[in-house]
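Final report, Chapter 2: Outcomes

The project's central promise was a pipeline that accepts a single protein chain and returns its three-dimensional structure in a standardized token representation, suitable for archiving and comparison. That pipeline is now operational. To close this chapter, we reproduce one record exactly as it appears in the project archive, with the input sequence first and the structure output second.
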Amino acid sequence: MMATLRKFLPRHAGGRRRRPLQTVVIYLCVLVFAVWILLPVWYLVVSSLITPQQLGSRSFSFLPSGMTLANFRSVLTGDTGGAGIGSTDIGSRLLPAIGQSFLVSSILVVLNLVIAGAAAYALSRYPFAGSRKFELAVIATRVVPAIAIIGPFFVAFRVIGALNTPWALVISYNVFTLPLAIMILKNYFDQLPREIEEAAKIDGAGRIQTFTIIILPIAKPGLVAAGVLIFLEAWSEFFYALVLTNQLTVPPLLAGFQSVQQFNWNALAAATVISMIPPVLLVMIFQRNVVGSLTAGVGK
């Protein structure tokens, strides 16, 4: 019996089995971390399914007996009156804002995969003098504070009349998402065997042909992972969307619920749950690609 149980115990990286106490501690830490992350989400979902009276009661229950979809119905129809937000018409703008967020995120994913894919492949397969410094410069752009460059963007978009348009967000978001995509894809291309490209070269395939016909299909998991992370970052971006647009996308629109003296927390919770559905579904569908690409090369 003990010999059978030992087969299922986790092992160290070197092949040794962990002690039962170590395994319990690890799983306990994972459980605490999961509760820490999921507890606010659960509270948000429960708040969206109860009435303001239930939410305001001292005996708030995490499993309320009476649940209602009235909050979702009021948000989707824009009928959030009686909570101080009816005059701002925020509820009726939720679905258009979700559409704009989806549009901006999708365009950004396509642009980033095209540009970053070519740049990452060139850095991986055709290093040049100063290529390492270029990679470090790309990484360094990720640490630049967003507030440091919002001023020039605002002035430029105001001059060309692009404020409060999806293109203002698409252009400005590239500053942060493009380096992320380059880093992910460059790391993924480094893991691909070069023998495949050498065989294609022997068969007479050119560089572009090899890249488009052979490398891209093999690198599909890496491309999917980069696309998902770019989509999530664009979907949840708040500061640039707030400054460059008039609540065009979801994050600043949700923040607008609190811009009045009285607001319906239950309606805000329902709107937040609705806005979480697209990114959550996306991650659930492509989670294996994301995890596999981010951990590529760790075991080397």
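Archive annotation: Confidence is low (pLDDT under 50) at residues 1-10, 82-88.
This record, like all others produced under the grant, will remain available to the consortium after the project formally closes.
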